[in-house]
């Protein structure tokens, strides 16, 4: 087993569980049918989280030539993925049998600090990991670009204006989605 296979298996496990959690909750919401009061915010947020999870999973290929890694970096890798799992788990409500009406906006409003806080913390941890795992690390202003996503996340954590949240979610989903669609892997 190579070092990449060892570390990637942990990545695949955590991100696979996050995707499974989201898919299970979406299935249960669809199955609950009329008991669900649908709202765009948690669905847009789930779309963002889905894109992030798949992008993180696929981009792990860039680390396939890793020949050594420290325990600290493995721990940081695990923590940043667990934070992403929390964002995935918080974006859609869990439906329980016999439960009354499921209000997606109420869930979004209740969990937005947790979910957007996890996304913001995840961005910071992913940036720290990228900076500390690169032996040729050198400062540049471009390193701060991913952290620009923190501003809308923090806004949505504290500002309860629905149209603004929907606008920010839509813009983030469109921008991030369009920016990663051209990502290519090279063997």
Number of self-contained structural domains? 1
Uncertain regions: pLDDT < 50 for 5+ in a row? none
- Strand content is under 5%
Q: Look at the helices and sheets and give the structural class.
A: mainly alpha
Determine the fraction of residues in helical runs and give it as a percent range: 55-70%
Main pleated sheet = 2 strands, parallel
C-alpha Rg (nearest Å): 18 Å
The order of strands across the largest sheet is 1-2
Instruction: Please provide the ordered H/E string of secondary-structure elements.
Output: HEHHEHHH
Mean pLDDT: 90
Topology:
Elements: H1 3-32, E1 36-37, H2 40-59, H3 71-91, E2 102-103, H4 104-133, H5 150-158, H6 162-180
Parallel strand pairs: 1-2
Helix pairs in contact: 1-2, 1-3, 2-3, 2-4, 2-6, 3-4, 4-5
The gist of it:
The protein has 187 residues and is mainly alpha-helical.
Give a written overview of the molecule.
This protein has 187 residues and is mainly alpha-helical. It has one domain. The chain has 6 helices and 2 strands, in the order αβααβααα. Strands 1-2 form a two-stranded parallel sheet. The two termini are 18 Å apart. The model has no long low-confidence stretch (mean pLDDT 90).
Search tags:
mainly alpha; two-stranded parallel sheet; 187 residues; 69% helix
